[in-house]
Write a structure and sequence with these properties.
Elements: H1 15-38, E1 45-50, E2 56-61, H2 67-82, H3 100-133
Antiparallel strand pairs: 1-2
């Protein structure tokens, strides 16, 4: 069945989806708290790029630390919008009346999980960048000063 002829179902969110959505919002709020909590302590120059070893190799204005947060807002909004249309996703099997609900739930859960992971990734990047900028570590990962 082509995406235009697939059944359109209104499926309530599962417990898993609600949990992942809550975790995404918590990660998002953590990113905001990190920015506001450390903004006054940040030096004027913060790392903006890290090499393959996790060491900073480019520094720029502390305003650049907002970029991961802005990307998080964009990704959260985009993936939330896209997840509302599971009948338009690209599936490896043909969607029929019999398997539509299962496939739609799996597709939507995948996007919500991806969204949660990305939000947390950007919050962790912000946290690590702040730690390097403040001299608490030498780079990304488990390095120490």
């Amino acid at each position: 069945m082509t995406p235009n002829k697939r059944p359109i179902l209104e499926l309530p969110r599962s417990r898993f989806e609600k949990t992942m959505e809550a975790l995404a919002i918590i990660g998002f709020l953590l990113g905001i708290l990190l920015l506001f909590g450390y903004w006054a302590d940040l030096p004027e120059q913060v790392p903006t790029h890290f090499n393959m070893s996790g060491e900073p190799d480019s520094w720029d204005s502390k305003w650049m630390i907002i970029l991961p947060f802005v990307i998080s807002i964009f990704l959260y909004t985009l993936l939330t919008f896209i997840s509302r249309f599971p009948h338009r996703f690209n599936y490896i099997c043909e969607i029929t009346e019999g398997n539509a609900e299962t496939q739609y739930r799996l597709g939507r859960a995948l996007l919500i999980l991806l969204k949660t992971e990305l939000i947390w990734l950007f919050s962790i990047i912000t946290w690590e960048t702040i730690a390097v900028a403040l001299g608490r570590c030498n780079g990304l990962g488990f390095s120490t000063p």
